[in-house]
Amino acid sequence: AAAEKGGFGTFMEKEIHDQPKAVEDTLLGRTDASGRLVLDELRIDPEELKGISKIIVLACGTSAYAGMVAKYAIEHWVRVPVEVELSHEFRYRDPIIDDSTLIVSLSQSGETMDTLMAVRYAKEQGARTLAICNTNGSTIPRESDAVLYTHAGPEIAVASTKAFLAQITASYLLGLYMAQLRGKLFQGEIEDILADLHKIPGKIQEVLDGGDQIRELAREMAQEPSVLFLGRHVGYPVAMEGALKLKEIAYIHAEGFAAGELKHGPIALIDQGQPVFVVVPSPHGRDSLHAKVVSNIQEVRARGARTITVAEAGDGDVVDYSETVFYVPETQPLLMPLLTTVPLQIFACALAAEKGYDVDQPRNLAKSVTVE
Ligand code: AGP
């Protein structure tokens, strides 16, 4: 069993460390010699993809957070509206679907019953269905019109890690491919983004190499009853993912929310010593997002919070207001989730281990949820 875990104590640790390869393998072989994206494997007529008027992403749990990240990128690159909906909510609300709607399901296992039922429902309503899936030949891709596999390799730990990064990577490839087909980005822009995506595995490795700092904090925080996570833009789903990891394996009350929502309620939760993780946007990003999040850090700190920030290397603005800073290497703002998620995974994994819990098989949970 030790060999299966690649020398790590748990599958989750191993899978966190598999992430550079998961991203690399998901990118592999999907461009031609001239640098153009080729996704022939999709089995969907490019003409049909050109005519899509709306995308609806369906998924649950961590996969749904990958979908939320994808929405920011795909709408920005392709200029097609993207909705993200939890599979189990979708078919009970009479959604608007027609034959120009593309359903993109995201599922690691390909067997999640809620997502399968939602895909079936959408198909019946005439939508095109595309599965982004990590499990070859599983039910959801078999029942979909098209499939784009993530190549994260088998994920054993109940808490999803490498599948999440692979899902973001694959949905970015889909977005770039649609942008290429529809002429929404210049070829040079697509090539630049792809080149930066190819640099991500090495940068994830850098984050992994700095893991001791995160594990040390996790050990120190093992007795905390509640942890909050804030993020904005693509950092918002990352914050929710950080909270979900802590709930599912460390059984700690955790909540992730959009930093802009603070003043609309959650700031009332902050009192002396409350740990707050903040996923800080890139200082090179859009408008004044970075400055706004920095002022959120100040606001919670002024009310006694213990602030832990995940920020881009070289971001000096957060230092004065953070108890602890975890730096991740610089990349394009939209690619940041592929890096900022990693410290949060390491944190949850180390904290659960510190509490003596079964990290790979948390209580009450199954790896794939095959019941509705
Ligand atoms: C993730 O850590 C969870 N165990 C869970 O939320 C999972 O992502 C969800 O059940 C969806 O599974 P799927 O990707 O296999 O469809």
UniProtKB/TrEMBL annotation:
<dbReference type="GO" id="GO:0006047">
    <property type="term" value="P:UDP-N-acetylglucosamine metabolic process"/>
</dbReference>
<feature type="domain" description="SIS">
    <location>
        <begin position="44"/>
        <end position="184"/>
    </location>
</feature>
<dbReference type="GO" id="GO:0006002">
    <property type="term" value="P:fructose 6-phosphate metabolic process"/>
</dbReference>
<comment type="subunit">
    <text>Homodimer.</text>
</comment>
<keyword id="KW-0315">Glutamine amidotransferase</keyword>
<protein>
    <recommendedName>
        <fullName>Glutamine--fructose-6-phosphate aminotransferase [isomerizing]</fullName>
        <ecNumber>2.6.1.16</ecNumber>
    </recommendedName>
</protein>
<keyword id="KW-0677">Repeat</keyword>
<dbReference type="GO" id="GO:0005975">
    <property type="term" value="P:carbohydrate metabolic process"/>
</dbReference>
<keyword id="KW-0963">Cytoplasm</keyword>
<dbReference type="GO" id="GO:0006487">
    <property type="term" value="P:protein N-linked glycosylation"/>
</dbReference>
<dbReference type="GO" id="GO:0004360">
    <property type="term" value="F:glutamine-fructose-6-phosphate transaminase (isomerizing) activity"/>
</dbReference>
<dbReference type="GO" id="GO:0097367">
    <property type="term" value="F:carbohydrate derivative binding"/>
</dbReference>
<keyword id="KW-0032">Aminotransferase</keyword>
<comment type="function">
    <text>Catalyzes the first step in hexosamine metabolism, converting fructose-6P into glucosamine-6P using glutamine as a nitrogen source.</text>
</comment>
<feature type="domain" description="SIS">
    <location>
        <begin position="217"/>
        <end position="362"/>
    </location>
</feature>
<dbReference type="GO" id="GO:0005829">
    <property type="term" value="C:cytosol"/>
</dbReference>
<feature type="active site" description="For Fru-6P isomerization activity">
    <location>
        <position position="367"/>
    </location>
</feature>
<keyword id="KW-0808">Transferase</keyword>
